[in-house]
């Protein structure tokens, strides 16, 4: 039996399943079955679509049904008409779909939100990214991105575990919006950086778990690391908008 | 035989082939064969991938080989690692691939450019979009987006035919970079708005041609409209970076 904080922490870790080659697709789909019952859920996107087709996306969503959040991460960033077509054909079976806030509301995200609402899927908007290039345009324009997020009212936003100060600023601006934070592990963020330091609800881990020979142990290891850093925060999630 | 300006204009019109449902995929692939020898080329993206799989993307590129520009438009907007995976698995056979300038250089576009260079494909960066939402974040941050474009040095950039003044500003800032302008037709831009008023090299037309029962005639109609507006500009392309 996990100590309470570890049990709570593991439910805050989403595993990103991004195949690097066709041979990875089946291995990562098998992994979905393993990690789904343990962690917060899974995230699949363009690499899975490119290498495994829409069938692999649908299979990932099916395997994780009832086992946590199923996040479709195509980083949608086109005009409303095109994002709508993509959402209609790909987001069935997913709990949430990720798009970019910088696309803007008019003729863009307003159409996507309507489509996702109709499919019972939640919208997550990227307001900052985990790689260094995010400092060049996204971060200087964060105020405008947060203004779009306030207008669109997504269920969640993405802010980077690699820069917890950005997560903290997003949390301050959007106190009741769920924050998902990629960038833990291969990209340099340490488990707990976003949840403990920034106030995020979820951390997204990719290669650190998906590249492990024993993904469930690796996932537990991430959770233990987070739990050791901020047990009180995990047990008394201040935002009240923890995973539902 | 087309009058010279019409002959030149038709070589400046790229047809976007975006299926709205699975049944459209084959029809649009057949259309690729028709329009490729006539216009400047084709653009396919997420709807074709979602509804026809990577096989449909590859088929579109194959059908248009030697018949003009083949542009892959996934609006890539992720960290470098993910964009690299997508480019490696999908951009073979394409002449150019579109990504978003706002992703930034470090850990983002620098990796994508290297991958595309290795595949012999050219990078096109979106610096502004054709829908009204582009006024909310992208346009106010255009200076920063153009700075990223100057650093990345893509073969081309995307700027909207729906706002020719933005095209003109991009042309002024990036005098030798090819400008591709979507937004003609269904989105409200008139043929020639980007080329004649803004100095773009190509206009991208989607449903106006792809939705026509006679796409080649519709394509010629667009070209005649452009040619009537600025014959001299077409015949003496000032930027010298006309389609090559």
Task: Note down, in words, how this protein is organized.
- The structure is a homodimer of 244-residue chains.
- With 244 residues, the first copy, chain A, is an alpha/beta fold.
- The first copy, chain A, has a single domain, classed as Aldolase class I (TIM Barrel).
- In chain A, 48% of the residues lie in helices and 17% in strands.
- The first copy, chain A, has helices at residues 4-10, 22-36, 46-63, 80-90, 105-119, 142-152, 164-173, 193-198, 207-210, 215-229, 231-235, and strands at residues 13-16, 41-45, 69-76, 96-100, 122-126, 156-158, 178-184, 202-205.
- An eight-stranded parallel β-barrel of chain A has the order 1-2-3-4-5-6-7-8, surrounded by six helices.
- In chain A, helix 1 (4-10) crosses helix 10, helix 2 (22-36) packs parallel to helix 3 and helix 4 (80-90) packs parallel to helix 5.
- Chain A is globular, with a radius of gyration of 17 Å.
- The two termini of chain A are 22 Å apart.
- Mean pLDDT of chain A is 94; it is low at 238-244.
- Chains A and B meet through helix 3, strand 3, helix 4, helix 5 and helix 6 of A and helix 3, strand 3, helix 4, helix 5 and helix 6 of B.
